[in-house]
Amino acid sequence: MKTCPHQTTAAGTPVTDNQNSQSAGPRGPLLMQDYQLMEKMAHFNRERMPERVVHAKGAGAHGTLTITGDLSRYTCAKLFAKVGNSCEMFARFSTVAGEMGSADTARDPRGFALKFYTEEGNWDLVGNNTPVFFVRDPLKFSDFIHSQKRDPATGLRDNTMQWDFWSLSPESLHQVTTLFSDRGIPASLRHMNGYSSHTYSLWNAAGERHWVKWHFKTLQGNKTLSNEEAAAIAGRDLDHHRRDLHAAIARGEFPKWQVQIQIMPERDADTYRIHPFDLTKVWPHRDYPPMDVGIMELKRNPRNYFAEVEQAAFEPGNMPPGMGASPDKMLQARLLSYPDAHRYRIGINYAALPINKPHCPISTYHRDGQSRFDGNGGGAVNYQPNSFGGPVEASSVKEPPLRLQGDAGRYDHHDGNDDYQQAGDLFRLMSGGQQAQLLGNLAEALRPVPRFIQLRQLLQFYRADAAYGSGVAQRLGIALDEVIGKAA
Ligand code: HEM
């Protein structure tokens, strides 16, 4: 489209004066007929759309994914058909609990949201920088988030709310241990790993399914911040991580991640000692060794932050043929939650925005709706089946049926699901220095919390490992007997 040499209104009529409003005489009052002033004020009043209810503060960049490992026997997705294939992608990294203007260096998991524009449609992997999560049933998600956000009375973030929830939700212990470890505050968005966290699936043309977990290992090396370093940076620059990512890419230092995958044959899920669809668990690498399958590289900064980073809409349900979900209850809920959030936050036609639009042809029967800014399908037939050459189903790429069993009901997610083993394993895996950092970080966060909540949480640590419980207790000046007595 031709660019206009002069300023115009949204309707394209020339703006003759952008400094002086129309007034009755040089000293005012103003005239209602000043359409340009009205339009300018009205547009400004509507500049904000709601921020994301979680993960509001973020940074994004464009890049590529290049396939380096052969996955063709596991999936018919064309992206993985041969080594050397590549696609364009967009990444958005974020903190979880803070608002749009909050500090980048908070102790918080980091969102690791990726949109791969494959030739068969978008593949979105909406993960975190940690391999596990705080809860395993989506019914608890909004309560968990409320406990991390602001106190309804004071409007302040509140340690008591956080530890009240965590101490009453022992399934959170593995993720809490990760969060308060030395890995809990990344030094930059370039120096952290990403994980699908959930189990997903791959399926092939023969109808075979494998369960998979995705890993993105930073090739810049893992670097982290201590509480003191993070606080000092936040005092100087709330946008430290956003600035660092932008500056590195502008300098031509393109961050890269090694993409890896853990693969489990479908039937193993029936007998594996660890619940394979429990988001609070990892699959130990000795059981399912990660395999290198690609390199992700970020190479281009957004040209417009709002259009690209704010309007980006990721959804775990976006998967080309050959890739699928799993019975993980959290993932199942997220399949619905994200598009629902986008319809509210951006509007029904969010998928047609340039940042979200697939880089392959699209052919749907969706029409109309607010902010329809493309051709709306023109005069093409808008119902199906039809006799006028409209698009038809691609039945050759049907996901194989999934075996299900069991009676419908509400099952206690703690039954048969150990909450402590992997949290304890993580603690035992740490060096003495890492353990000391973890214990110190936890004691600092628990100090302002009422004693009965401290005791309840100390018992959770103790159940994972006696040294874990006693280490935090000692730093809080609490006798271990009191903690254990609580259990009796
Ligand atoms: C953002 C819901 C669990 C990663 C969001 C948003 C919602 C949401 C509503 C805002 C979306 C938007 O406005 O664009 C949920 C629910 C969950 C859940 C209901 C559990 C039942 C998780 C888990 C992960 C995760 C387990 C990581 C493994 C993210 C990321 C974003 C996000 C990375 C930001 C995406 C972006 O950059 O736009 N979540 N979430 N969430 N969530 Fe979740």
UniProtKB/TrEMBL annotation:
Q: Which SMART domains is this protein grouped with?
A: Catalase
Q: Which PROSITE patterns match?
A: CATALASE_2 (PS00438), CATALASE_3 (PS51402)
Region Disordered: list its residue ranges.
Answer: 1-28
Question: What GO molecular function annotation could you give as one example from this UniProt entry?
Answer: metal ion binding
Question: Locate the Catalase core domain: which residues?
Answer: 8-392
- Enzyme Commission no: 1.11.1.6
Instruction: Give the binding site residues for heme.
Output: Y338
Catalytic center residues:
H55, N128
Could you tell me the Gene Ontology terms of the biological process aspect for this record?
hydrogen peroxide catabolic process; response to hydrogen peroxide
Required cofactor names: heme
Write down the chemical reaction(s) this protein catalyses: 2 H2O2 = O2 + 2 H2O
Q: Which Gene3D superfamilies match?
A: Catalase core domain
Q: Keywords in alphabetical order, please.
A: Heme, Hydrogen peroxide, Iron, Metal-binding, Oxidoreductase, Peroxidase
Gene Ontology CC entries for this record = cytoplasm
Q: Which domain of life does this protein belong to?
A: Bacteria
Composition bias of kind Polar residues appears in 1-24
One Pfam family named in its UniProt record: Catalase
Q: Which family does it belong to?
A: Belongs to the catalase family.
Q: What is this protein called?
A: catalase
Which source organism? Solimonas aquatica
